[in-house]
Design goal:
With 266 residues, this protein is an all-alpha fold. 67% of the residues lie in helices and 0% in strands. It is built from twelve helices and no strands. Helix 6 packs across helix 10. The longest helix is centred in the first third of the chain and has 31 residues. Belongs to the peptidase M50B family.
């Protein structure tokens, strides 16, 4: 007979799917570091993609774990604490589309996939913290990726691995910045929503499903896109990563286009 304790344990056991993704990240990270792969771009592509999916899983896990400790005890039964991306409410929006956007445009697409029963949670601060937990995970991931750069600890770090880390850091910074925008449907709006009046929330609610589309439509405007990436690169520069490193990281990532000769000899 299955006990409540054993069910809770299985609800929180790390999924083999997530372990497999981490294994791919580790193996391809090793291949990028050692130059083992015959085509370094393939190793960089697999390493960055796997690491990006890991960060997306951790982003959603942070939302779920914070919600659990805030009062939503239904989180475990939904499988959100297993780090399995297949358990998300919208795996397409939170995993597939973000990877496609990385491939197409080198931008960290925010996801939103855990269904939280907000009626179980009391207190505006708790609601705000639940929304902030996800993008704060991206911030933490960015700090880890950029640590070798701002700590000036790049001696002995292979060039290809530096480029991969730089590009991965760019994805994390863009994801954090976009997620913190106070736009309906994004986590930034979730942070401020508990503090808004009922009338304001009721008027804004119909626009929530289109918030992300609105943000990317605005980013297609050349002047806005330029200003956005100027902010991103300024943040990365303050962390010791220059535009050449992120550019070459993206060039290696898109191995099917052929690596720029400049990056090959940098």
């Amino acid at each position: 007979m299955t006990t409540a304790a054993s069910r809770r344990s299985s609800d929180r056991r790390i999924s083999p799917v997530f372990v497999g993704i981490v294994a791919v990240m580790a193996v391809t990270g090793w291949a990028t570091w050692t130059g083992f792969a015959e085509q370094p771009g393939v190793a960089v592509f697999l390493f960055v993609t796997a690491a990006w999916i890991v960060s997306l899983c951790l982003h959603e896990y942070a939302h779920a774990r914070t919600a659990l400790h805030s009062g939503d005890i239904s989180i475990g039964a939904k499988g959100y604490l297993t780090l399995n991306p297949l358990k998300y409410t919208h795996a397409l929006l939170s995993i597939v589309l973000p990877v496609i956007f990385v491939i197409m445009g080198g931008i960290g697409l925010p996801g939103g996939a855990v269904f939280i029963e907000r009626n179980r949670i009391q207190g505006r601060w708790k609601h705000s913290l639940i929304s902030a937990a996800g993008p704060l995970t991206n911030v933490l991931f960015a700090v880890v990726c950029t640590a070798p750069f701002w700590l000036h600890a790049l001696d002995g770090v292979p060039r290809d691995f530096q480029f991969a880390l730089a590009f991965l850091a760019l994805l994390q910074v863009t994801a954090a910045l976009l997620n913190f925008l106070p736009v309906p449907g994004l986590d930034g709006y979730g942070v401020i929503e508990p503090w808004l009046s009922y009338n304001v929330k009721r008027q804004v609610e119909p626009f929530a499903p289109f918030g992300l589309l609105f943000v990317f439509a605005v980013l297609w405007i050349p002047s806005v896109n330029t200003a956005f990436f100027d902010v991103i690169h300024s943040l990365l520069n303050s962390l010791g990563i220059n535009e050449i490193q992120t550019y070459c990281g993206q060039e290696f990532y898109r191995f099917w286009q052929g690596t720029n000769e400049f990056c090959s000899v940098s």
